[in-house]
Structure formats: C-alpha cells, structure tokens
Specification:
- Helices cover 31% and strands 25% of the residues.
- By secondary structure, it is an alpha+beta fold.
- It has a domain of 266 residues: Immunoglobulin-like (Sandwich), CATH 2.60.40.
- It has a five-stranded antiparallel sheet, with no helix packed on it. A five-stranded mixed sheet has the order 4-10-9-6-7, with no helix packed on it. A five-stranded mixed sheet has the order 12-18-17-14-15, with no helix packed on it.
- Strand 1 and strand 2 form a beta hairpin.
- The longest helix is centred in the first third of the chain and has 34 residues.
- The N and C termini lie far apart (159 Å).
- The relative contact order is 0.11.
Amino acid sequence: MLTFKYRFLSIKFICFWVLLTCLNFGLISCSDRIEVAPLSSSEQPSVSINAGKLLEVAPVATVQQLRQSLDRYQPQVTILNPQSEQLFEDTTVSVDLQVQDLPIFKDDELQMGPHLKLILDNEPAQEVYNLDRPVILENLTPGTHTLRVFASRPWHESFKNEGAYAQTTFHILTKTGINTPDPSLPLLTYSYPQGEYGAEPILLDFYLTNAPLHVVAKENSALADWRIRATVNGQSFVLDNWQPVYLTGFEKGKNWIQLEFLDGNGDRIDNVFNTTVRLLSYNPKIQDTLSKLMKGDLSLEYARSIVDPTNEAKLIPTPSPTPTVEPEATPEVTPTIEPEVSSEPTVSVPEETPTSQPEIPAQAIPTLESEDSVESPSVVSPEDSSASKQPSIEPIVTPVPQVESIPTTQPEV
C-alpha cells in the first residue's frame, strides 16, 4: 500500500512538471509572438517582390554598412512653429524645426547627409539640412494645412523609431477642414522616390502613423489590420511590413508610383493623404552622388563623409575617379595641336607676295621704250635739243645702245 502511494505521488509529480514545462513554452512562444513588431525597419520582407519587370534586391554593401553607423541614433523631431491649430493672418509662414539625437548636415563635396523631410499637405517633400534658420512657406492658399516632418538618412531612407515623426495642422486666414488627417485612422505618408535617378536600385519608402501591429490587429477584432499596395507603371504588389524596399526594373524616362493604405480585407482606408501618386525620371546618364552610391562606385571610406561630419579620409579617394577621366581627355587634345602646324603655308604666302610686288614696280617699261625709240630712227627730237653735238654723237650712239639694250636680260627677270 505504501509503495502504491509513492508511485501515485511520483506520477502526479511527473505530470505536474510536464504541465508546468508546457505552460512555460507556451508563454515564451506567446511573448515572442507579441514582441515581434512587423513595423520594425530591420525585418526582412515576408514576400519577395517580382511584379513584371520589377524585382526587389538588396542595397549595395556600402549602403548597408553606412546604415549600421546610423542605427545608433534615435532622432526626436519637434515642430516648434507653427503650433497646432494656429491661425495666421498672412499667407507666409515661418517653420522652425528641432531635432535631437541626430546630426543634421550636408557634406560640401558629396552634397548629401542626414536631413529632415518636410511635407506640406501632400506635396512632394523638401529636404532640410540646416536648422539654424527657419523654412519659409510663401503664397499659401487660405484654409487649413498640415505639416509632416520626419528624419531621413542621406540616401532618403526614413528613420522609423518612435519620435522620428512630427505633425501639426494650422490655418491661413480661416479654417476649412481640408488637409486635416483623422487622428483615429491610420495615416500613410509617401516619402520616396521622387525626382530624377541615375542608377538602380531605386528606394521605395514611406512612413506610417496609427498603424497597429499585425498580431495585435488579429487578436483584437476592433482594430483593423493593414496592407500597403504599391503600383509601379501599372504593376502592383502588396507590402505587409513597414520597411524600405529597393527595386530594379524601371523604364528609362518617366515612371509613376502609387501607394495606397488598405485594411485587412483589401479595401482602402480613406484618410486624407492615404493615396498618393508620384512621378520619377530614370536616366542612367546621371552621375550624381546618389547614383554613384547605389551603383557601388563610392568607397566606404569616401562615403562616410555623408554620415560622419568629422570624417577626415574623404579627400583620399577623390583623386581615384578623376585620373581615369583626365588621361583619356589629354590624348584627345594632342591631335588638335598637330593641325595647328598648318600655319606654315601662311608664312610662305607673305614671302611670295613681297617678291612679286617689288618686281612689278621695277618697271622694264623704260627699257622697252628705249628699244622702241631706237627702232624708230625718224624721231630726231633728242637730236634737236642738242644741235651743236649732232655730228659727233650720231655715229657713237647708234652702235652702243643697240648692242647693250638688245640682250633680253630684263624681260627674263
């Protein structure tokens, strides 16, 4: 009987520990599932993008390494002016911004650096690299306007930490209610791409606010799950993670991109700014810093100047691209110098002209006229002028001038 009790206790003890172990594993798995945030920018895409010609690729190694050097920052963005719901009696507004825990600057040589993106209503973003002076917004239309500001990396990839985004709504002359996001609904902010690009991959980036975690939305039916539908030149794909996407397969020339905020059923959530279309131009001949960075033509030491304002090694790699171009240009100049020797015929021309011209004025006319006078003996006018010497001169003059003037030396010259 005693042995049976001990066996029973041991079986209960074993079952208890088995049950406790299962509960521990269940709690750990649940905690991991809840802690995983699909909004994290470090996540990998759940579905690879391959829509038509479009293909998602990883950025070059230089971009990945530069990104790691900026991951230590958690920028905190604040809009000091205008204040929320402020009413202005003028169509010009001065915008004052403040950032903590992120250096804002632009490298003088590469013309890139960490910056803020400032979006008025749903217009294309403008980049702010200097916070010492305000941004002036002029000729604003009367009514309600909204400013959205967030921190961005030099290659236009936004910071997605809490506090990296700020928003305010103000009014010009009167309140109209337009351009006013609903704070109870998720909001999509289009960031990139826009403008001109000279190399692929091209970054697709956006900012989300009031978007719940996918896991939380599934567990709570009152919260709506979300998706982002992107359409590039008519080719659509869906994103379910908040992360930067690098794409190839753009057409040369003009391209268009549309972003839409969808709920879990695939229907659009109609908050203001949640559907945005932008144009971009792809020209492989453009050789700006961003294009060189995306192609991997910039060394890591050289490119660090766009993430570290104290980088001192930026002058070393700069001569590397230039000598490759300069020696190619110099041989092209040398053949242009050789045809300049054609100036020699110009020198020979003046030699001919002076020789011919003085020979012409050295008139042989008097010699010819003298010959004519000799041929016509009937002209005795010179004899009449000196009549006293006629008998002595006539026999002497006639043989001497005729023999000396007959030689054709003068006409030969």
